[in-house]
């Protein structure tokens, strides 16, 4: 149930229901591209079940999976900040069931209800910080270029 997600648990009492009224239930089969880097970010999702890979485009290589999101997680934050374009891509790894939100409607709700807007923005900021830290750790684990000498004994 969506009320057990971190997002709704972080909102002031009663505000989760208000936000849910702006959602609709959707599902995607495995392999579905939900969005691509550079496209317009006009919606976001709270995953109910399944998993979604966040992918980065690397010229000359396949899309690189940066993180896999699962149940209860927020998918998408680029819709909050102009120019409202996705910074990554997202693909369903397994069958996904989610609540989909219209970005413009949620931005409008957050602008009208400053308590909700503040709590929602703080939740998204924490999500971004957590994902950036996870990406940093993964980057530190990558091997260096082949022309770099390895550590000395």
From TrEMBL:
InterPro entries: cNMP-bd_dom (IPR000595), cNMP-bd_dom_sf (IPR018490), Env_Response_Regulators (IPR050397), RmlC-like_jellyroll (IPR014710)
Classification via PANTHER family: CRP FAMILY TRANSCRIPTIONAL REGULATORY PROTEIN, HTH-TYPE TRANSCRIPTIONAL REGULATOR ARCR
Pfam families recorded: cNMP_binding
CDD domains (UniProt xref): CAP_ED
Name assigned to this protein: Cyclic nucleotide-binding domain-containing protein
Cross-referenced SMART domains: cNMP (SM00100)
Gene3D superfamilies per UniProt: Jelly Rolls
Gene source species: Streptomyces iconiensis
Segments forming domain Cyclic nucleotide-binding: 7-76
């Amino acid at each position: 149930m969506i009320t057990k997600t971190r997002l709704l648990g972080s909102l002031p009492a009663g505000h989760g229901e208000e936000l849910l009224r702006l959602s609709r239930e959707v599902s995607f089969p495995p392999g579905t591209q939900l969005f691509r880097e550079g496209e317009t970010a006009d919606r976001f999702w709270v995953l109910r079940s399944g998993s979604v890979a966040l992918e980065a485009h690397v010229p000359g290589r396949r899309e690189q999976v940066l993180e896999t999101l699962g149940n209860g997680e927020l998918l998408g934050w680029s819709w909050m900040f102009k120019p409202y374009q996705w910074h990554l891509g997202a693909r369903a790894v397994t069958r996904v069931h989610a609540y989909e939100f219209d970005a413009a409607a949620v931005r409008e709700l957050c602008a009208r209800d400053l308590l909700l807007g503040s709590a929602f923005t703080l939740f998204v900021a924490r999500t971004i910080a957590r994902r950036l830290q996870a990406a940093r750790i993964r980057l530190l684990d990558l091997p260096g270029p082949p022309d770099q000498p390895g550590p000395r004994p």
